[in-house]
UniProtKB/TrEMBL annotation:
Name listed for the protein in its UniProt record: Carboxynorspermidine/carboxyspermidine decarboxylase
Domain of life per record: Bacteria
Keyword set includes Lyase: yes
Organism: Yoonia rosea
Residues that, per the record, bind substrate: E232, D268
Length: 364
């Protein structure tokens, strides 16, 4: 198969899904895949055996969830336009408004639909301002318990999303307690509560049993169905970006240019100024791996290898599923990576290829 391509490995996806299913079994919490993190629908059949549905951040995502992923479909968006609302409702089981203003604006249109409201508890675990829902002046959800209480009779659920790659159960527990202290009275009036995504509960060594117990007691205390909205936790480690070295140079450091671009194919890493990952990253030879776009800083990172790199060598970047495939773009006209799936029996299947026509069709 010709590089570059994203390779989704079902045998690496499965352990995450099994943990998600275990958590539902032991806590009662349902898990919905957050499509903004991962929307490669060719593996949705497998994922839907272990998860309860999808949640979304736009009309197109909610529609994709409805059409491609069995189970429940939650609609959420920071703001809906008038012309979107009918189609959003048609494709969703629940709609979660970001503000009381939007709830009221679409009160008639959404009459009879299950409705919820996003709440901003004002605390989070994000280490990046860019991704911090609790940043100062945040537009992400309503924050005043008194104002939320006034519209409680128009909704049956609330959504809190304030965790971000949080692998510390005690911190999660502490923030949930803050949420209970501040919003407990209105939570008790609801039928369902979504605690959002950002909990890294599929990670190595995460105390899943403690999380399950905490979620179960929360659900019992308030008489609510709990939902989680894992994105990264569902697909972490499940895909790689497969590339080939095209050329090598030396300019104070060993440079290898590959048939891909971090700006075009792993954009999230550039945004957060993080290097890509190569395993095992050991050996005596250090090389800077560079993209083939003409952006000077199109650099995947510096990695160690057992032997000097040369044109034709194959490399594999780890963790290419979350916030990666959804952000690929046509910068520099660099060929978009194909998408391949490694099935549980080891066979690899190409599910999508991109060519010049796709590039041309992306603009006009
Ligand atoms: C981004 C997002 C998620 C998924 O977050 P992860 O960190 O990928 O788990 C879930 N819910 C909402 C509302 C989000 O914005």
């Amino acid at each position: 198969m010709r590089t570059p391509y994203y390779l989704i490995d079902k045998s690496r996806l499965l352990p995450n899904l099994e943990k998600i299913a275990w958590l539902r079994e032991n806590s009662g919490a349902k898990s919905l895949l957050a499509l903004k993190c991962f929307a490669t629908w060719s593996v949705f059949d497998l994922m839907s055996d272990y998860m309860d549905g999808t949640t979304s951040s736009s009309l197109y995502e909610v529609r994709l969830g409805k059409e491609k992923f069995a189970g429940e479909t939650h609609a959420y968006s920071v703001a809906y336009a008038d012309h979107e609302i009918a189609e959003v409702l048609e494709h969703s089981d629940k709609i979660i408004f970001n503000s009381i203003g939007q709830l009221q604006k679409f009160a008639d249109a959404s009459q009879g639909h299950i409705r919820g409201l996003r709440v901003n508890p004002g605390v989070s675990t994000s280490e990046f301002d860019l991704a911090d829902p609790a940043r100062p002046f945040s537009r992400l959800g309503e924050h005043d318990p008194a104002e939320i209480a006034q519209v409680a009779d128009q909704i049956s659920g609330l959504m809190f999303h304030n965790n971000c790659e949080n692998d510390d159960f005690d911190r999660f527990d502490e923030m949930l307690t803050l949420i209970e202290d501040r919003f407990g009275a209105v939570i008790a009036k609801m039928d369902w509560i979504s605690l959002g995504g950002g909990i890294h509960f599929t990670g190595e060594g995460y105390p899943l049993d403690r999380l399950a117990a905490r979620l179960k007691s929360f659900a019992t205390t308030y008489g609510v169905q709990v939902y989680l909205e894992p994105g990264e936790a569902a697909i972490t480690g499940a895909a790689t970006l497969e590339v080939t070295v095209l050329d090598t140079m030396h300019n104070g450091k060993n440079l290898a240019i590959v048939d891909s671009s971090i700006e075009a194919h792993m954009l999230d890493l550039i945004i957060y100024r993080e290097p890509a990952k190569i395993a095992p990253n050991t050996g005596d030879h250090e090389w800077m791996i560079c993209g083939k776009s003409c952006l000077a800083g199109d650099i995947f990172g510096e990695f160690r290898f057992d032997a000097p790199l040369k044109a034709g060598d194959r490399l594999s970047f780890q963790d290419a599923a979350g916030y990666t495939m959804v952000k690929k773009n046509w910068f520099n006209g660099v060929k978009m990576p194909s998408i391949a799936i490694r099935e549980l029996d080891g066979t690899v299947r190409l599910v999508r290829d991109f060519d010049y026509d796709d590039f041309a069709a992306a603009l006009s």
